[in-house]
Design a protein that fits this description.
The structure holds 2 protein chains of 2 kinds.
Chain A lengths: L2 E5 L2 H6 L3 E4 L2 E2 H5 L4 H7 L5 E4 L2 E2 L7 E2 L4 E5 L6
Parallel strand pairs in A: 1-7
Antiparallel strand pairs in A: 1-2, 3-6, 4-5, 4-7
Chain B lengths: L1 E6 L5 H11 L5 E8 L11 E6 L4 H15 L4 E7 L1 E3 L4 E9 L2 H18 L2 E7 L2 E4 L4 H8 L2
Parallel strand pairs in B: 1-4
Antiparallel strand pairs in B: 2-6, 3-5, 3-7, 4-6, 7-8
Classes of the chains: A alpha+beta, B alpha+beta.
Chain lengths: 79, 149
């Protein structure tokens, strides 16, 4: 079973899709399968990450397990 | 109790306010805020606005905000309705209402909830003008507003 990357806001336009199925593993490894320019966008300092709906801290090491959902969250602009 | 809803379709603010008011007869004061899509003339006029949400986080975050608001002020009731999807000028986007025994609590609670919805809730906004769609970045004001609390 794959893991899933979710791209919100402008990241969805940059990636060209809102979701991507990936092979589970450490995040660095998962990102090497993507376009390098895209990986740089995803790791931008203003982009937060959430694993299965829970916000991650900056220093958290991310290893995706089967079925995990990792979301990339650019700055919000609601209301 | 709080009534928190994330809606993919339009809603009627007058009907929601009538129901909320009727549900809280003991409240001495009810403060509401309605945010709507701006209708403005000119070449930069917004033709449409789209709000995207993230199912895993947006509604849970709104519910946590409602709980924090209720914990901070003595309220009889709290209503938070937020749209997602494509909207047009004049469409309601967000409705917040706070009912309390006394007006100060109602004013403050509605103000607090709106500031946090604007700057901390999981929504991403893009606008369509004559030049096409454009993602909207948060304004510095939104962060200043948060610092008030």
């Amino acid at each position: 079973m794959p893991a899933k990357l979710v791209f919100l806001g402008r990241l969805e336009d940059i990636v060209g899709t809102g979701e991507l199925a990936v092979t589970p593993g450490p995040l660095e490894q998962v990102l090497t399968t993507l376009d390098p320019a895209l990986a740089v966008e995803l790791l931008g300092e203003r982009v937060r990450m959430a694993l299965n709906g829970a916000l991650l801290g900056d220093s958290d090491a991310v290893v995706l397990a089967e079925g995990d959902e990792l979301a990339f969250l650019p700055p919000v602009s609601g209301g | 109790m709080a009534d928190v809803r994330l809606l993919g379709e339009g809603f009627s603010p007058p009907e929601e306010m009538a129901a909320f008011t009727a549900a809280h007869p003991a409240a001495g004061g009810i403060v509401s805020f309605l945010g709507q899509v701006r209708a403005e003339p000119g070449p930069h006029a917004v033709e449409a606005l789209e709000l995207k949400h993230y199912a895993a986080m947006t509604l849970p975050g709104m519910e946590a905000l409602a709980a924090a608001t209720r914990a901070r002020w003595a309220l009889d009731g709290l209503l938070i309705i937020h749209r997602y999807g494509v909207m047009h000028p004049g469409d309601p986007i967000v409705l917040v209402a706070a009912a309390a025994r006394h007006r100060r609590d109602a004013f403050a609670a509605a103000d607090f909830a709106m500031d946090h919805l604007k700057s901390q809730s999981w929504f991403w906004k893009r606008e369509k003008t004559a030049a096409g769609w454009r993602w909207i970045e948060p304004r510095p004001d939104d962060h200043r507003d948060l610092a008030r609390w």
